[in-house]
Each structure stands twice: as structure tokens, then as C-alpha cells.
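Handout for the seminar on molecular recognition.
Each group receives one record of this type.
Step one: identify the two inputs.
Step two: read the structure output and locate the region that could contact flavin mononucleotide.
Step three: write two sentences on what you found, then compare them with the reference statements printed after the record.
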Amino acid sequence: MELADCIQKRASIRKYASDPVSETDLREMIRRAGMAPSVNNSQPWQFIVVTHKALLEQAAGRVHEKIDTLFPPAKVKSTVDHFSTFFENAPAVIFVAIKPYSAIADKMLDQMDLSHEDLNSIRRYPDLQSIGAAVEHLLLSAVDLGYGGCWLSGLMVARKELEELLQIRQPWSLVAAVSVGKPAGHTVQSEKKPLDEIFTLIA
Ligand SMILES: Cc1cc2nc3c(=O)[nH]c(=O)nc-3n(C[C@H](O)[C@H](O)[C@H](O)COP(=O)(O)O)c2cc1C
């Protein structure tokens, strides 16, 4: 599929048909995600792909529990819960782990009164920006291969619990996830701002 068509067609998919996502397609999605630009070419990512239904249910269970303890009974709670746990019904979920990168500027840290975290913040989190680029490659590749997906951050409320379940160990940490599968039913595109609202040309 043409890149412009993939971009146009992509939408967050939260309901999936029961068709599995083949390992070949999953590997291809991750291969393309790994082609994304990253700060210093650090490629600070690992992709843990789960198709094991019971494990996904367990993961969603940890998120349910965490939401229950974190949020007092509130009207929005069930919405938060839904958007954070629907991934349990996806045929595949790709968990993304990040490793702290060492920037060239980090070598100057001992001469400055700054930590790696300070520097990362000053540079507006290039490590997280790199992950964003990889996740978008992944989502567009899912569309190209006939699937749909959804970027997930709601589940991060249970980050520690999920890291334990997925055996993600230091220096790695869980940073995002993407659910993938064949969309069930019609895909609804969410409305986007008109071009003139987001475009400034300084010529
Ligand atoms: C960083 C990030 C985190 C997101 N986390 C969630 C999430 O936890 N649950 C969810 O249902 N959608 C999540 N989304 C999807 C957004 O809700 C979605 O992209 C947005 O509503 C626009 O819709 P569209 O993707 O169909 O264009 C996330 C998107 C991004 C970029």
C-alpha cells in the first residue's frame, strides 16, 4: 500500500476480529519499527510480542487492579478502565521497552551540575521521541499488512506489575504498548484539525 494511503487509513482500532496475526507479519512490523530514527542511532527499544491469551488476560487483570486502587469510585473510572484494558481481546500486543541511552553530551555531565535526567529534559526527551517514531512505524506497517492497531499508554498505571509479568528487567523499562489485529467492523476515523490550523510557513 502507498505510504499516503497507510497514513490516511490508520485509525486507533479497539475491536478486533478473532483472526490471528501471523508471526511473519509481527516480525515484519517489528523489523520496520526498528528502522525508525533514534537519538544517536541508539535504537533504545525492545519489542515483546504477546499472543498468549492467558498472559494478556493476566496483564489486563493487573491493570484492572491498579485502576481500582488508584482511582476512587468515579464516573470516569469505567471509561479509563476500558481504554486501558481492552487490549486483552487483541490477537497480539506488542509491549515496548526502553533502555536509557548515553548521549555524546552525557560525557560532559561530570563537568556540569546536571544529571542524565536533567539533560534529557533539556533536550525534550529524545529517547521518548525515538520510541514515538518506532511506534508510528509499527502502526503504519500494521495497516500496510492488513491489520489495525492502537497505541496504548493507559496500561502504564501498572508499569511495575507488567514489567514483573513480562520479565522486563533493568536497565530496560516498559514505556508503551501497541495492540494489533484485524479490525472488527467498520473503521471510524477520528476528526483531525484542518491543515490551516496546524500549518505555519516561515519563508
Ligand atoms: C502516546 C499515546 C498514548 C495512547 N494511549 C491510549 C490508550 O491507553 N488507550 C486508548 O484507547 N488509546 C490510546 N491512544 C490512542 C489515542 O486515543 C488516539 O490516537 C486518538 O484518540 C486519535 O484517534 P486516532 O488514532 O484514531 O486518529 C494513545 C495514543 C497515543 C499517541
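Reference statements: Helices lie at 3-9, 23-33, 53-70, 77-85, 116-122, 126-144, 159-166, 195-198. The radius of gyration is 19 Å.
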